[in-house]
Design a protein that fits this description.
The complex is a heterodimer of chains A (about 325) and B (about 350). Chain A is α/β, with parallel strands linked by helices and about 325 residues long. Chain A contains nine helices and eleven strands. The chains are: A alpha/beta (about 325), B alpha/beta (about 350).
């Protein structure tokens, strides 16, 4: 096993306070290893974006982190808890250690500034002593890295196409050579052809620069192809985590299985698909026990009463994966 | 009052037909360009398509390819620049008023976003009653109306109907809302449904439920459905026929299975190669789709001459940039055609042309 770069331990995130609080993320523990692409999949409302914003402490009110630790292991030096950082330390931590490409990143660029201004601004804020010429050279290099000609430096965002803006955003995320890049639905607004090009480029860059990626999406078929490990979230909890091929071949949790069978196949035999019956749970009114049990075809006696614990299942590859389901009770 | 429920006869009756459908939107002029000629966005050019009873026709394309414009032209929501729309063989051109109502009774549209297409201040009952009243299907007595309402909700599998009738849109999930939107469209008792990305705003796990519902309705009510999507895999799953659109023009069409398994046009091949494929685990290493244009569709204000795909096409030939390719039969399955010079029987293509190929070869 490779060494971890980010360890999330029992993270809990609420929206609101007191009795009215909605528990959006519950007891999530997840480890991101050095140089790996970890996919985080789930439906809307499953808490996947909240988890990403929570662990970087970017959550706007009424979002509250109710508990848990996020242990970050820098390239050199001792590990520390992100939740315990002061504002000044957070400022240094963000972007330089962990950067985010936001959902709808195409609209995250400021329309009234040139691309170069926005790129240089990041570098200046974090490395104020760097000479201007070096900053400019670095900005050019970043654009080249993501496949944009350096003469587009002086373009305004509206002069670039959606795909190019997305590449600029990825370039900006890499500006300070972070250890971790969090991508929140980075390609949902793009067409499939562009999506594939950008993802391939991302994988190449990852191999070259060695950062880790936390890739959040609802498109599980995309994750199976592009990530090393996949974690599936449902109702604010991680319900299954496994290496991508293992999850695709034999998923243990009925929800993962249902999700995998919700995508019509483009190749191979044409089969009748059913999707998952029912609707995603209402976070204000979560079912008791396993939150998936009202929609689960395999629900049995303990499911409505007791919450299953995420643990290693008793399968031959049980040490490499975890699942939270009463069908696969955790081993000791 | 009963809702027509003819047994699914194996008819191939044409419900809606478009020939040479064209739409150009004028580009707004600024003061600076006031005295220059008006320029146009060539959103849709020369589109031919037929919707048949009891069949689903998919229209696949990237954003900006003009597929939604086609739906809106077919629904007569936009006046068309050129071409003809025939409903049951009758050429029609309506501009609002009674004629539009009569047309809408036959051809209904389902929109992409059920969060926006239902009025948040009104209940499900109001939405459906209005559709029934407008199309004179509400019956004479309140009891008739109630039966009709329950009937509609049962049809879209929102049961028991009493539980949903007095809900507001915000009390329903996305899938339930889209079902209400479908019920509202069925309230007019149409013969054709135009579904513009009906599931792309819904959660992954409930998309299939809505698609299966639409298929079920097609079979029970013998509807003609136009299914507009950017997801070619769902077209394969749901549609009988598939048409592919690129930059305002149709580039390929035929039986869904043939189009997705043996794509003929280089654009369709690129589209299919780019779709996520879980069987190709740890991608980025697999076959690289060839795309000379960096994934960018062309400007539609000044579209490329000849075939609009030629600047990106890996198999481009000199004539592609000058001559517009007509629909050419591929010959591997009846009705499979592509607008591409590679399939010109006159043999202008050089030897060793990549013919329609099997996926994965």
């Amino acid at each position: 096993m490779k060494d971890p770069v980010l360890e999330i331990r029992d993270l809990n995130v609420d929206y609101g306070l007191g009795d009215q609080a909605v528990h959006a993320v519950r007891d999530v523990s997840l480890t991101l290893h050095r140089g790996e692409v970890l996919g985080l999949a789930g439906e809307s409302g499953s808490g996947k974006s909240t988890l990403a914003y929570g662990l970087t402490r970017l959550l706007p009110p009424p979002g509250v982190i109710r508990g848990g630790q996020v242990i970050y292991h820098p390239a050199a030096g001792p590990a520390y808890d992100v939740m315990a950082l002061s504002h000044a330390e957070l400022r240094a931590f963000r972007w330089a250690e962990t950067s985010i490409v936001f959902q709808g990143a195409m609209n995250s660029l400021n329309p009234v500034y040139k691309v170069s201004t926005q790129l240089l601004d990041v570098i200046r804020a974090h490395e104020p002593r760097m000479p201007a010429s070096a900053r400019l050279a670095r900005a050019r290099e970043l654009l080249r890295l993501v496949g944009i000609a350096a003469d587009r430096m002086d373009s305004y965002p509206h002069q670039l196409s959606g795909g190019m803006r997305q590449r600029v955003m990825i370039g900006m995320a890499l500006a300070l050579e972070p250890q971790i890049v969090i991508m929140d639905e980075p390609t949902t607004a793009l067409d499939v052809v562009m999506q594939r090009q950008i993802l391939r480029q991302l994988i190449e860059l990852r191999e070259r620069l060695g950062f880790s990626v936390l890739f959040i999406t609802h498109d599980l078929s995309l994750l199976v192809e592009f990530s090393d490990r996949i974690a599936i979230m449902y109702g604010g909890r991680i319900v299954e985590e496994a290496p991508a091929p293992a999850l695709y071949r034999d998923s243990l949790h009925p929800y993962s299985d249902g999700l995998l069978h919700s995508f019509p196949a483009l190749r191979g035999e044409r089969r009748e698909l059913t999707g998952i019956p029912g609707s995603p749970p209402d976070l204000r009114n979560m079912p008791t026990g396993c939150s998936f049990h009202p929609r689960c075809s395999k629900a049995f006696e303990p499911c409505p009463d007791r919450v299953p614990v995420l643990g290693h299942p008793r399968t031959p590859d049980g040490r490499t994966r975890t699942v939270a389901c009463w069908l696969h009770p955790a081993t000791g | 009052m009963t809702i027509r429920e003819t047994p699914a006869a194996p008819t191939t009756e044409v419900v809606l037909e478009a020939a040479g459908l064209t739409k150009h939107f004028p580009v707004r002029r600024k003061l600076r360009s006031l005295f220059k000629p008006v320029r146009f966005v060539h959103a849709v050019d020369d589109v031919n398509l037929t919707l048949r009873r009891g069949r689903v026709t998919a229209l696949v394309g990237e954003s900006g390819s003009g597929k939604s414009t086609v739906a809106r032209l077919l629904a007569q929501l936009y006046p068309r620049t050129g071409g003809e729309i025939k409903l049951h063989g009758q050429p029609t051109r309506v501009r609002g008023g009674r004629a539009f109502r009569a047309y809408a009774r036959r051809v209904q549209m389902i929109f992409q976003d059920p969060f926006a297409s239902l009025n948040p201040v009104h209940t499900v009952r109001y939405h459906l009653t209005r559709a029934l009243r407008i199309h004179q299907r509400a019956g004479r007595t309140p009891a008739d109306l109630e039966t009709a309402l329950c009937d509609l909700l049962t049809r879209v599998q929102l049961t028991p109907p009493e539980r949903y009738l007095d809900k507001f849109p915000h009390e329903l999930s996305g899938g339930q809302r889209q079902r209400v939107a479908i019920a509202r469209a069925l309230g007019a008792d149409p013969t054709a449904l135009l579904a513009d990305e009906p599931v792309s705003m819904l959660d992954v796990s409930i998309r299939l439920g809505v698609l299966n519902l639409l298929r079920n309705l097609k079979e029970r009510l013998n509807l003609a459905i136009l299914y507009i999507t950017h997801d070619i895999a769902s077209a394969r799953y749901f549609a009988d026929d598939t048409m592919v659109m690129y930059a305002g023009r149709m580039v390929e069409g035929g039986d869904s299975e043939t189009v997705t398994q043996r794509p003929a046009h280089p654009y369709t091949q690129l589209l299919i190669d780019s779709a996520p494929d879980p069987d190709q685990i740890q991608g980025g290493t697999g076959s690289v789709p060839r795309d000379a244009g960096g994934g960018e569709p062309p400007s539609l204000i000044d579209p490329p001459g000849g075939c609009r795909f030629h600047p990106r096409c890996p198999a481009v030939m000199p004539r592609c940039s000058t001559d517009l390719p007509p629909r050419l039969e591929i010959g591997d399955a009846p009705g499979h055609w592509a607008a591409c010079w590679l399939y010109d029987p006159a043999g202008a293509a050089p030897s060793g042309t990549p013919a329609a190929r099997e996926i994965g070869s």
